[in-house]
Amino acid sequence: QAKTIANTSLNSYSRSVTELMSENMPEDTEYYYQGALDDRTRDVCLSMISAGFLTKKEIESKYPSAFIDGGGYNCRHRWTMVTSTVRDSVKKANSIIDSKKSFKPVTARGVEI
């Protein structure tokens, strides 16, 4: 339980730092939802990973509160600025979504997307 609290705190802190940094970035800066892609990944996190490269405005519109909250408690993901090394992860997330029998993304605040 202590590990979960520590991980949640560190990931929330990371997302908060990105939020602060984004205030000084151009509006067209794109972000990618980065983190683990495995059988424990929440559907909402898979949805955000597969969404590809989004501006902060697009993120806030499509996934309310996710820029700081991520997928919710104990989320292992964060928004990070797009670099050339992340493009393959989008393809992988879409492949996982396509192979899932049941895909129902819900935000940390219970909003189905």
Q: Which structural class matches the secondary elements?
A: mainly alpha
Mean pLDDT: 88
Q: DSSP strand (E) fraction?
A: 5-15%
- In DSSP terms (H or I, runs of 4 or more residues), the helix count works out at 5
Biggest sheet: strands side by side, in what order?
2-1-3
User: What is the percent of helical residues?
Assistant: 40-55%
Overall geometric form: globular
Instruction: Compute the number of strand runs.
Output: 3
**Major β-sheet annotation:** 3 strands, antiparallel
Q: What is the CA-atom radius of gyration, in angstroms?
A: 13 Å
Distance between the termini: 29 Å
Order of helices and strands: HEHEHHEH
Low-pLDDT regions:
none
Task: Give the SSE layout.
Blueprint lengths: L1 H21 L7 E6 L7 H8 L3 E2 H7 L3 H4 L7 E5 L5 H13 L14
Antiparallel strand pairs: 1-2, 1-3
Summarize the structure.
With 113 residues, the protein is mainly alpha-helical. The chain is built from 5 helices and 3 strands.
Question: What labels would you give this structure?
Answer:
single chain; 113 residues; mainly alpha; 12% strand; globular
What does this structure look like?
The protein is built from five helices and three strands; from the N terminus they run H-E-H-E-H-H-E-H. The radius of gyration is 13 Å and the shape is globular. It has helices spanning 2-22, 43-50, 56-62, 66-69, 87-99; strands spanning 30-35, 54-55, 77-81. The protein is mainly α.
